[in-house]
């Protein structure tokens, strides 16, 4: 259908959907269900209740570690590239379908809902199917949603973008879980931060380059079809990824886990005291609440305040040039802060770096409120730039810390919850925008400020330091919580 529309510059709006396309969509659903059935994990009759501690403390990263890091980086770039493409297809979509901005706004809104739902769903699947199998399923859905490129109807595009968000939303938390459970504790922290930053920056770069190279010749639809070769590459990468040995231990598949661990320079030790860690889960609930509040606050800042600020500042008397220049410089400085957060996170303190990032965001919010209180002045505008810096640092450290904090048996669900919360605030503010409710910058900033103050307090009081520690088993969590309480 796409190729037949070449003479119309690949515009398909208003064309009927061919029966082959309808059958293809049905087979996609059937194929996904068969894949889910085929990837159902085998369990072992051996009890996994006996305490097994995984030791993976190689002196240096092995070639197997570096291969896994490279594969996850490529996977995250591909994963981020797909939702990042939304911003590049909207102008062409608006022109082809002849629809107003208010209608087009439903596309990113529904896609964001899909990513939030995907984070929750894939977090559960990661604990049930395993890390590797969940990446497989995400990649399969990723390829299937490329059918967006041939959708003649705008609202069918909206539906498929929801599915796209569903497939893309779970990749990041699952990838973090796999890295956390495979990397040596000595190197785990900086690898998590740097891998996440590489995926985010690389994904937006690939999306922009594809748009620059292809869209002028093939129209906006070609950007969806790019996801076919990149999605197949993701499937191939998933085929060569190892399953998390610590997840295999949770299933009682000890021999398989030990075989994989040997490839990464690890070994197994038995140790008593597993039951002691079960109570520690409940003692992690306060810090879980703090991380949830931090994720919600970040999403409101990223998807709301940072989008509304330029227009609000211009309305308060600043020039467009001054606002644009400051925000651009702040974004560049924010990227540098991400690089600084990596050594701070791995060499100083994991929970301290997250709390410091949140504190930086708090100072930025105070800068916004000071503009409301005292009017336009350069110092307040300078402090406000800390909002961008803090948001960048939070993005780089929040999910890695969450991945390190929770034991392997619930890591996928915990990560999925936190990742979903990083979109929930965005869904709220975009719903307000779609409903025509004018945002009150001062009121929203005050609410986020109070939320973050409570979150930082909770992190400082209840947060567990994870730097260099093995905290994959229930007993490990118990020791870490006990150390924090002491």
> Structural class, from helix and strand content?
mainly alpha
State the name of the first-level CATH class of the largest domain: Mainly Alpha
Task: Tell me the CATH architecture of the largest domain.
Answer: Up-down Bundle
Percentage of β-strand residues: under 5%
The CATH superfamily of the largest domain is known as MFS general substrate transporter like domains
Overall 3D shape: globular
Distance between the termini: 66 Å
**Which parts are unreliable, with pLDDT below 50 for 5 consecutive residues or more?**
45-50, 272-278
Q: How are helices and strands ordered from N to C?
A: HEHHHHHHHHHHHHEHHHHHHHHH
CATH level-3 fold name of the largest domain: Growth Hormone, Chain: A
Gyration radius over CA: 23 Å
Give the rounded overall mean pLDDT. 79
Keywords:
two-stranded antiparallel sheet; 2 domains; globular; Growth Hormone, Chain: A; single chain; 22 helices; mainly alpha; 486 residues; 75% helix
